[in-house]
Structures are given as C-alpha cells and as structure tokens.
Amino acid sequence: MPQAKGVWGLGSCGISNLQSVDHEATGCTPADMLFARTLRLPCDILFGRPSDTPSSPNEYLNNLEARLESVHAFARERIKLASERMKTRYDSGATGHHFKEGDQVWMYNPKRRRGLSPKLQQSWEGPYTIVKQLNDAIYRVQRSPNAKPKVIHIDRLTPFRATDHSSV
C-alpha cells in the first residue's frame, strides 16, 4: 500500500510534533490548550523527564483546572493582541472616504467579459450616486434613477471626478 503524503505520512511522530509546537497567535501548544501539560515525546524515553510528585485524584483535578484556566487566559490575551495587530494592518490600507447621499462615486467591479484582455477592461464603473448609507461601511448606490440599486462595501467605492476615467 503506498505511503500517504503530508502529515499523515509521518505517522504518530508527525502528529505529536504538530501538537507540541507553539502556535503564533496563542503562544501555547495545542497540547497545552487541550491537556494543560506538555506531551510526552519519544525523546523523553531517551533522556527522561523531571519526575512529578504523585497526587490524589482530587488534587490532580484541582491543579488541572487551574492550569487550564491560566493557559486559556494567556491564549485569549495573545489572540486579542494578534487581532489588534491584524486590525491595525487592515486599517492602514483601508479607505478613509466618507460619502453622503447624492455624492457621485466610482464603483469597483472586477467582473471580466469574455473575449477581451483583462488588461484592457475597465474595472471601475460609474458614475454611481449614493442613495443611502446603510451603516459605516455599506452604501446603497444607483447608476441612474431607473436602474436597480446595488448594495456595496465602501472599499469598492472611490469619489467620482469627471477627468479620472471615461464612463463605461
């Protein structure tokens, strides 16, 4: 039978290695998060492990609960920091435009038509008119009074200037 590729081809050693590597966001290993202890690896057989003092089942459960709570609190804090970093990175490239009803805008539409090179196709359509702001990031726009309105995210809109693009 042929060997499986990837992690499964490594067998239990590969999986135990994945379970014992610190995750970037949480700062903990998956084994720490799940079992509140480090895994016993094959190298522990060769080199040994520090001996733990045996405890009663009740004492072990209390220690386990405390360790799990502290590991999960630590992981939540690390995930919060990672989330803030991702938000900062996203916000640095996000548009700072704010539109009001009646403003003219270009709308980004990456839809491609067959038979034409993507390089020669216009990605920006318009002008569209802002009909209504639904929330901070979502707008309802309409190309003409008789056209069906579209609901568009602010990242796909840019202010209309007649000299920027030719109308598509």
From TrEMBL:
Residues 126-159 form the Integrase p58-like C-terminal domain. This is Integrase p58-like C-terminal domain-containing protein.
